[in-house]
Amino acid sequence: LLTAPIEIEGYRLGVGASVGIALAPAHATTSSGLLRCADVAMYAAKRTGSSYATYDATQDPYSTERLALLSELGGAVRGGELRVHYQPRVRLADGAVRGFEALVRWSHPRHGLLPPARFVPLAELSDVIQPLTLWVLDEALRQQRAWRDLGRELAVSVNLSARHLMDDGCAARIAELLARTGAQPSALELEITESAIIADPERASATVERIRALGVRVAIDDFGTGFSSLSHLKRLPLNALKIDVSFVRQMLGSPADRVIVESTIHLAHDLGLAVVAEGIEDEATLAALRAHGCDEGQGYFVGRPMTAGDASAWLGVGGR
Ligand code: C2E
Ligand code: MG
Ligand code: MG
Fold it and tell me: Is the peptide bond before 25 cis (omega within 30 degrees of 0)?
């Protein structure tokens, strides 16, 4: 009924509608609470382009549980409750370890070890993302330095949020951390997502240029899941492109995913970029990626994200 065109003064107007669903008493028990939940669900439906969505507290930026976590997060960063886990990244041709991706976790006193999906999006809604990222960078660079002191030249990759690319002082803070930790700029790779670029391509590319001028590498993370145009990517001084887990994981069973992965490898190489596949969960996938010329890979089959101590043991070196 809603999508039927409406005729007004000779024009046929198309109207779209998205429906948000909230249930009592599961989601709220007051009329205003239910309407608020339905509103959140409606925006989720619009975002995903589906015609309706049911309220999901984990997707609600303003649920009381999430607001409580957000209020604790600043103290957690200062109080040393964050942890960095390291996931190995290898060269597919010969299996040589190239480095590790630093992935943050929150060792919460009541909720246990929280994955980044539970708190990074919250941090991004507030200014906490700034100290959070600087803390992860500092930790990862000191770890890089520690491995170097043990004779292992390894790179570390750190995820940046969209907010950082909009911040003109971002590169200067990274330079300061590099100097303070004594880590090699060339051993640091920063991962940015496509969504971080489309918001303000001019400003994002100015920040990326400044970061690259430090000698730090820059990669596009989760490639294929955003909506960035290739013309934006072409203009950025990038080093690498990471193919998202969602395409790699089932590439052997899904012809469509396979085509996406193979074309992305060619596209990246034609643009002069290295390609890293994320989410390699078995040997057959690794072999297929290697056969298609993918440069590097990361995934549970190679190694899960682990503590610095476990990563050192995995490498066969001592250390912290
Ligand atoms: P990402 O940067 O794309 O990281 C890869 C995610 O895929 C990690 O999840 C990793 O554990 C997971 N993964 C790795 N191998 C496999 C595999 O073989 N199969 C499957 N199914 N998954 C695999 P994690 O650690 O939960 O991180 C999720 C996301 O959180 C990251 O995605 C990144 O976007 C964000 N994140 C993590 N740490 C930070 C951080 O310090 N700062 C910011 N801004 N974001 C972070
Ligand atoms: Mg990443
Ligand atoms: Mg990714």
Answer: yes
